[in-house]
Automatic annotation (TrEMBL):
Its main location: membrane. This is L-lactate permease. Pfam families: Lactate_perm. The lineage of its organism: unclassified sequences, metagenomes, ecological metagenomes. Keywords: Cell membrane, Membrane, Transmembrane, Transmembrane helix, Transport. It is a multi-pass membrane protein. One of its GO terms (cellular component) is plasma membrane. InterPro entries: Lactate_perm. Coiled coil: none annotated.
Amino acid sequence: MQSKTTGMMNLIAGDISSLAGMFYPAAAVFIGTMGAFITGTGLGSNIMFAGMHTQAATTLGMNPITVFAGQNAGASLGNLICPNNTVAACATVGQVGNESKVMRKTLPAWGIILTLYMALAMVYTLVVFPGFGM
């Protein structure tokens, strides 16, 4: 049977889980955001990091479902600042060349929502659904 994660992902999951500790749900949101920023899609981010989050959550004794929900929420938020989407949106509304201006106006809102999502991921994983799905 072939593993759904690679040895490298398991190694990264171990390192990140030991570094983030109980704050891993918040880290999962940030990782999801950065994955979507890089790949240009939430799906790409989710595929790239699903195995890692499952491994890390299991290692830390956390609910992998809520940890991955944080990843997914972060990935959707990453689309807000994704350069591909910014360029496409500017082209659609006739604002070609104003991408940096749009990005500068978007980043403060992104930061506020990211902080909120990270806090919610912590609450849902550690308080609301700590044993759900385990």
